[in-house]
Amino acid sequence: MTTRITTPFGFASTAAEVLDGVDLTGRRAVVTGGASGIGIETARALAGAGAEVTLAVRRRDAGERTAEDIIATTGNKQVLVADLDLADQASVRRFTAAWEGPLHMLVNNAAVMAAPETRTPEGWELQFATNHLGHFTLTTGLHGALAAAGGARVVSVSSSAHLRSPVVFDDIHFRERAYEPWSAYGQSKTANVLFAVEATRRWAGDGIAVNALTPGSIRTNLQRHVSDEEIERLRAEAGAGASQWKTPEQGAATSVLVAASPLLDGVSGRYFEDCEEAGPNRPGTRFGVAAYALDPEAAERLWQVSVDTLG
Ligand SMILES: NC(=O)c1ccc[n+]([C@@H]2O[C@H](COP(=O)([O-])OP(=O)(O)OC[C@H]3O[C@@H](n4cnc5c(N)ncnc54)[C@H](OP(=O)(O)O)[C@@H]3O)[C@@H](O)[C@H]2O)c1
Q1: pLDDT-derived band at 243, boundaries 50, 70, 90
Q2: Of 98, 107, 119, 186, most Cβ neighbours within 10 A?
Q3: 227: CA distance to ligand 1 center in Å?
Q4: Is any ligand 1 atom within 6 A of the Cβ of residue 39?
Q5: What is the pTM for the complete model shown?
Q6: Which residue's C-alpha comes closest to atom 43 of ligand 1?
Q7: Percent of the chain, pLDDT > 90?
Q8: How would you list the strands of the sheet with 276-277, edge to edge?
């Protein structure tokens, strides 16, 4: 039995508040999807605390605009941009091959949500391929750099949508079952939590902590595949269990807590929500974590399936 982690921060805290007084000078961070939504505010807060931050993005122009903006608002010139398309394994491998030196914080933040049925050239379902397999190759490819940092942290940005589906090992890529965009998103977000569980088991000896989180509900480009009516329908369905909207600055708070707060020193393999460790999901609500997402056997199985899939 372990004690649930709580902090002085909560639902309304911002990323800047969480890192107030934290000095990240000399630390290096990568934020995937760092040119949109929560990723921008995650990167801004880390840069504001003095870290060197690389925005790992698939649209270089957006990355460069965001880097300029973060440099202007924080005064930290060490904001870099690198190309990364998580749906393209060759692109991910180019990124990891080009990385030099230690990496102290890897924030696996990028994602695609509720996309219409789409497959990569390998035939993989796009959300699983992007949200899980892309980050799997990225993180395992950066393992040496993370181990070299001494006390590195990996952040798996999941979602309360993980409550919509476990990883369906019998048919991960929807070859037999009918495609359903929310199940596919939910499955990929469960995979993000399971990754933290198994990476913790494998890498604790390397001083690498890996935790997962949900940022809350934030209006961003993530909802591009979802109409306003659909969002309202889902919120009505959740009833009193629906979470309130956060600003992107609030949405980034749990990510930077997990990435950089000394309050979480030595903590790994857990799932956070509103700046504290989540309890078990209460049925009928969209809060808390599903037991299947923290299941060590499923975590080990997913790792092996990922290795086998990637060849
Ligand atoms: N917003 C919410 O309410 C909410 C709730 C729960 C969880 N989350 C999680 O929070 C994280 C950030 O989401 P957000 O709301 O900030 O969404 P967002 O504004 O859409 O940002 C997602 C980022 O992922 C990038 N991305 C998508 N596919 C990619 C690929 N193949 N390669 C590289 N980058 C890719 C996007 O790049 P482009 O800009 O080029 O498209 C974008 O920068 C996600 O993991 C999401 O699942 C968000």
Answers
A1: confident
A2: 107
A3: 17
A4: yes
A5: 0.97
A6: 33
A7: 89
A8: 79-83, 52-57, 28-32, 105-108, 153-157, 209-214, 271-273, 276-277
